[in-house]
Amino acid sequence: MQRRSFIKATAMTIALATAGFATMTASAADTIKVGVLHSLSGTMAISETVLKDTVLMAIDEINAKGGLLGKKLEPVVVDPASNWPLFAEKARQLISNDKVAVTFGCWTSVSRKSVLPVFEELNSLLFYPVQYEGEELSKNVFYTGAAPNQQAIPAVEYLMSKDGGSAKRFVLLGTDYVYPRTTNKILRSFLHSKGVTDDDIMEEYTPFGHSDYQTIIAKIKKFSSEGKKTAVVSTINGDSNVPYYKELGNQGLKATDVPVVAFSVGEEELRGVDAKPLVGHLAAWNYFMSIKNPTNDAFIKKWSAYAKAHNIPGHKDKPLTNDPMEATYIGVNMWAQAVTKAKSTDTDKVIAAMAGQTFKAPGGFTSTMDAKNHHLHKPVFIGEIKADGQFKVVWKTPGPIKAQPWSPYIPEDKGKKDEPEKK
User: Fold this and answer.
1) Residue 18: is it exposed, middle or buried by C-beta count within 10 angstroms (0-12/13-18/19+)?
2) DSSP string, 370-398
């Protein structure tokens, strides 16, 4: 009798456990998991944290409209902590353990290079939202930031023009990693094609987190005093921008004397800096918060409400938008459109559905995902820093520019295909 009762109780326990497991499995299957891979600590947190919140805002908007394929999106947020090898570890965790359908993340090219083999090995999708050096084209990555011909080249062309000050000498100043070094390799070759010699090009690099720019600013002042109009092209990344711009102000290096054009400084990076001494210095992006149009007004309003509702540090009182936020927002929405079109989150089906996707961007143009090269067609804007840390647009392209992942200014790029290889 006892044995029969034990068997019945055991059977009931197993049945309940099985039912519970089935419920858990069904519950897990009721959501589509989305990876968020941005540094929330370390030197890059100043730039990347807000991109995590932009992804979460876009997910909330999609969920409020019913989600995708009848399921809600479930964000899985990890912190790779500005640690490049940790990016790869966290990417593998998101794909293999958390079973995310897509990941939005990375800022620096070294972090993207770190995770790329993981996404290709496991055939998962990464949306990368920041300007970069090109020289890459992966089936598993969609690049929603700018390629060099959508930012770096137009910026230097502007500096060489009469409107930009007719610069004849150039300081290429960057953080010491792949994006600044490759971008400056392209720019040096471009400058050579315009007749600028190596004697008129100064190239300097500092490590991540560098904070003492006194000596470098003094060298720039000396270089610029040698007879020709000089401009600085800055690819400094992360929190080093704060001491760099403070030192510019301390040493009185004004835009009228030596203009600086930056590729990684936007509204967010200027938050912690007294912008008054920096008025007139430049940034080249594909979006500025100050752009006036109804789509951008709506984007800023959404972000302001979201930041206040979620008590986001800094933004609840002074909400700011910037270029990588716009690129992130476009990426999430284009991915959602592709999933809807494909009726699936399967990587290969979504890749096929991404070709030619369009989205009305806050920058005022319709962004198009190139049918072949996984890059957005993007407009280019050059803005002057204003005293309030915003930017006044002083130059822009007539419309979106098609990206060139392989730069024509790097000889070894000749013959490379403008579309990712199928692996």
Assistant:
1) exposed
2) -TTTSBEEB--EEEEEPTTS-EEEEEE-S
Q: Identify the DSSP state of 410.
A: S
Scanning 126-194, the segments in alpha helix (DSSP H) are 152-160, 178-193
In contact, 127 and 94? CB cutoff 8 Å:
no
Sheet holding 72-78, edge to edge: 72-78, 31-37, 102-105, 126-128, 141-143
Distance (Å) of CA 138 to CA 34, 127, 174, 177: 20, 11, 25, 20
Strand arrangement, sheet containing 358-360: 358-360, 366-369, 376-377
Residues 6+ apart with CB under 8 A from 118: 88, 91, 92, 95, 124
How big is the chain by its Cα radius of gyration, in Å? 24
The tokens of 343 are what? 């009726």
User: Each residue's pLDDT tens digit in the chain (423 positions)?
Assistant: 444 443 444 444 444 444 444 434 334 469 999 999 999 999 999 999 999 999 999 999 999 999 999 999 999 999 999 999 999 999 999 999 999 999 999 999 999 999 999 999 999 999 999 999 999 999 999 999 999 999 999 999 999 999 999 999 999 999 999 999 999 999 999 999 999 999 999 999 999 999 999 999 999 999 999 989 999 999 999 889 889 988 988 998 889 999 999 998 899 888 878 899 889 999 999 999 999 999 999 999 999 999 999 999 989 889 999 999 999 999 999 999 999 999 999 999 999 999 999 999 999 999 999 999 999 999 999 999 999 999 999 999 999 999 999 999 998 887 787 888 765
Tokens of 187: 């720019």
Burial 289-303 (b: 16+ CB within 10 A, else e): bbbeeebbeebbebb
What is the distance between the terminal CA atoms of the chain, rounded to a whole angstrom? 63
- The single-letter code of the amino acid at 252 is G
User: Is 30 within 8 Å of 72 (Cβ atoms)?
Assistant: yes
158: region left, alpha or beta (phi > 0 left; psi from -120 to 50 alpha):
alpha
Pairing of strands 366-369, 358-360: antiparallel
Q: Which two tokens stand for residue 248?
A: 């510019």
**Residue 208 Cα distances to 79, 83, 402, angstroms:** 18, 11, 31
Q: What is the DSSP letter of 126?
A: E
Number of other CB atoms surrounding residue 360 within 10 Å = 15
Residue 290, helix vs strand vs coil: coil
Number of Cβ within 10 Å of residue 195's Cβ equals 8
